[in-house]
Description:
Rossmann fold; alpha/beta; three-stranded antiparallel sheet; 16% strand
Amino acid sequence: MSEIKVIAIDGPSGAGKGAVTQALAARTGFHVLDSGALYRLVGLAARRSGLDLTSEKAVAKLARELDIAFKPAYEGPEPLAVWLGDSEVTHQIRTDEAGVDASTVAALPKVREALEDLQLSFRKPPGLIADGRDMGTVVFKDAGVKIFLTASASVRADRRYNQLKTKGMDVSLADLLESIEARDKRDSNRSTSPLVPAEDAIIIDSSDLSLAEVIARVWSVIENSDLMGANTNAD
Ligand code: C5P
């Protein structure tokens, strides 16, 4: 079992995992794994190759051979620029359609298996903050801190609406709510790695909390765990 510390942040789409993850990364100096981005990239790569998104073997092969890179972003709201082969797809993978495609390929067990080593490779000193659906239950079962961040579907749809609007995307709130509910259902009911809190996860419902309040709660969980050692630069 690895000595390198992991903080797992799981939960449904729009619960605020990304913002919490970035805040924790700034405080701890830990690396970040945005596992949702990997499934989004697989979905996009499959579309580009003209594959049927449910053809498990072909999509899994593509996932194993995924040519991707995360590079520092110089402008815009995303912390990292995401590349697929020769093209930058930072914004393209964040659309709602890309999220739906991601959850379609994520339901295929062989695709999940194909992405496992890539996800494990993000575990590097001084530590990792892993954001996803199955970080604490499957990929990093030995994570020192497991948070399950959730919020009601309507609050999550509102947040997503504002986020996408800020990014200049044209979206409808009603469509987003419908899509979030459909995605929740697919993510929660799939047979492999369904969206469920780990038994040892701390559940935080952010419906009535500000981002700062959520971060404060998560931070207090971390401070009260035995995760905080000399190798973080938190004050
Ligand atoms: O987190 P994000 O919304 O980017 O994830 C997109 C989709 O990828 C999710 O709806 C889910 O189906 C899938 N996913 C997953 N397991 C993860 C991360 C994301 O199945 N660890």
